[in-house]
Amino acid sequence: MKKAMRIIGVVLSLATLLAAASSCGGKTLTTVEPGTLVMATNAEFPPYEFWEGGKIVGIDAEIAEAIANKLGLVLRIDDIEFTAIISAVTGGRADMGMAGMTITEERMESVDFSTSYATGVQVIIVRDGSPITSVDDLTAEGAFFEIGVQESTTGDLYTTWDLEDEGLASISRYSRGADAVQSLITGRVDCVVIDNEPAKAFVAMNPGLVILDTEFAVEEYAIAFSKNNKPLRDAVDKALRDLIADGTVQSIIDKYIVAE
Fold first, then answer.
1. In sequence order, which residues have a C-beta less than 8 Å from that of residue 195 and are 6 or more positions away?
2. Which of 25, 71, 195, 228 is surrounded by the fewest CB atoms within 10 Å?
3. Structure pTM?
4. Alpha carbon of 26 to those of 12, 14, 72, 113, 236: distances in Å?
5. Distance between CA 88 and CA 173 in Å, rounded?
């Protein structure tokens, strides 16, 4: 399937360009700030990253904190636009990008990725009573819908590749997922394609919206790194793999996502 071919698992990753020496386990690691692991994110993606009590929390935030602790570094999280995360990493303003980011061939042209630490599902939100009742309705003969997405997310990428590029739909892109959902509520778009977890939060806050049972795509989340710092790449990825192996990552995911 075309969507599946674009999702690639990768084991190792890289970190950033700018220098400042930091010691970790006998190795000298180069980070943006001495002794600090700088993570670029977009804190509009619950339960992976969101603001609570003046602090960015969530799955990605806690996994990043655990990684920093294993490396003897202090974590700093920068909240920026999702579209700016990769450029922050490649431009040396952040050591890594972690924002429910999916491994895709297009992104791998700019950055490398860590081991995958979570699986995400892209779903479709519609208004109750919508003529869109399954993913197949988006490609039905004669169908042409307006679809809302958060710009540069995998929802944007997949709907662009599979629908807009094929002349089957028009895509409206928003800087925040919440803005796409608001456009759905007011009727400016026919549906929203977004990750399942924030979708559940949006639907819970907005009566009259529902999530369709059929998935739009399944994806693997990983940490993005620049292609210029192998020691930090290896250290972060080893720490992540250790945290997966000892159950820490799963316990963090379970804290935020309750099994149905």
1. 45, 100, 120, 121, 122, 123, 153, 154, 155
2. 25
3. 0.73
4. 20, 19, 11, 24, 14
5. 21
Check residue 180 and give its pLDDT: 97
**What is the CA 61 to chain-centroid distance, rounded?**
12
7-32 burial string, b = 16+ CB within 10 Å, else e?
A: bbeeebbbbbbbeeebebeeeebbbb
Rounded CA gap, 124 and 132, in Å?
A: 9
Instruction: Give the 3-state secondary structure of residue 68.
Output: helix
Q: Which CATH architecture has domain 121-218?
A: 3-Layer(aba) Sandwich (3.40)
Which pLDDT tens digit goes with each residue over 223-233? 999 999 888 88
Query: Pairing between strand 74-79 and 36-41?
Result: parallel
| Contact in structure between 107 and 222 (CB atoms under 8 Å) | no
CA distance 97 to 79: 10
pLDDT band of 237, cuts 50, 70, 90: very high
Q: Which pLDDT score, from 0 to 100, does residue 28 have?
A: 65
What are the phi and psi torsion angles at 180 (to 5°)? -65, -40
Q: Which two three-digit tokens encode residue 201?
A: 């939060």
Here the tokens at position 204 are 């819970």
Q: What is the DSSP letter of 163?
A: I
Give the tokens for residue 123.
């779903």
Name which CATH class applies to 2-117+222-256: alpha beta
How many whole angstroms separate alpha carbon 65 and alpha carbon 1? 36
Other C-beta atoms within 10 Å of 204: how many?
Answer: 9
Average pLDDT, stretch 4-22? 33
Question: Domain ranges in the chain?
Answer: 2-117+222-256, 121-218
